[in-house]
């Protein structure tokens, strides 16, 4: 949890002065710096990294946010993953996140704008389920993510089952059980 005293002070509507840009327009070293500051350098030990191991993030669904001073303050990456069921059949999904905002810029709406931009990029004619590890109340309230369908799913490392979330137009297509990992096709 970020200490509120360390957060930047933003006027209402700070996001109206910001710009969302494709992540592939940003120097990868700067993206890594934002991720390190938002999640600490040990972030690579997290289970989410194992889930997407060896995959490249999806440029069409990954974004950066620049503040009014044109400084990089946050990023979101989306990744190709799959839930492999008991029969070994992979069910493609997209892992949303990490959503990273510099600590001093949290609370100004940058993270919400990044998630909204990423989810808006999904083609409604053939949407893949979206999965993430996050706060169920927050991501459920704004974007409809839920842990209702993930109780039988597993991850390749330690995780809080309550925080394994999915968003799907048709939850009936979701396997009841399976292991989430990279989508290697």
Q: Enumerate how many helices there are, as a single number.
A: 4
| Nearest-integer average pLDDT | 90
String of helices and strands: EHHEEEHEHEEE
Reported CATH architecture: 3-Layer(aba) Sandwich
Written account of the structure:
The termini are far apart. By secondary structure, the protein is of the alpha+beta class. Helix content is 19%, strand content 27%. The N terminus is likely disordered. Strand 2 and strand 3 form a beta hairpin. The chain has one domain: Aminopeptidase.
Can you lay out the helices and strands and say which pair or pack?
Layout: E1 19-22, H1 28-39, H2 47-51, E2 63-66, E3 72-84, E4 90-101, H3 110-120, E5 130-133, H4 136-143, E6 152-154, E7 164-167, E8 177-182
Parallel strand pairs: 4-5, 6-8
Antiparallel strand pairs: 1-2, 2-3, 3-4, 3-8, 5-7
Provide key terms for this protein.
185 residues; disordered N terminus; 8 strands; alpha+beta; 4 helices; single chain
In short:
The protein has helices at residues 28-39, 47-51, 110-120, 136-143, and strands spanning 19-22, 63-66, 72-84, 90-101, 130-133, 152-154, 164-167, 177-182. By secondary structure, the protein is an alpha+beta fold.
């Amino acid at each position: 949890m970020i200490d509120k005293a360390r957060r930047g002070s933003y006027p209402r509507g700070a996001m109206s002065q910001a710009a969302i840009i494709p992540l592939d327009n940003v120097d990868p070293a700067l993206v890594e710096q934002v991720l390190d500051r938002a999640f600490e350098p040990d972030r690579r030990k997290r289970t989410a990294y194992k889930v997407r191991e060896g995959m490249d993030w999806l440029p069409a669904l990954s974004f950066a946010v620049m503040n009014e001073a044109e400084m990089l303050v946050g990023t979101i990456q989306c990744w190709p993953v799959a839930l492999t069921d008991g029969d070994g059949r992979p069910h493609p999904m997209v892992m949303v996140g990490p959503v990273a905002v510099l600590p001093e810029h949290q609370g100004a709406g940058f993270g919400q704008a990044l998630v909204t931009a990423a989810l808006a990029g999904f083609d409604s004619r053939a949407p893949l389920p979206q999965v993430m590890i996050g706060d169920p109340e927050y991501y459920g309230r704004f974007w409809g993510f839920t842990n209702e369908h993930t109780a039988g799913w597993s991850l390749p490392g330690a995780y809080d089952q309550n925080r394994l979330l999915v968003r799907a137009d048709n939850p009936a297509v979701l396997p009841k059980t399976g292991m989430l990992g990279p989508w290697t096709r």
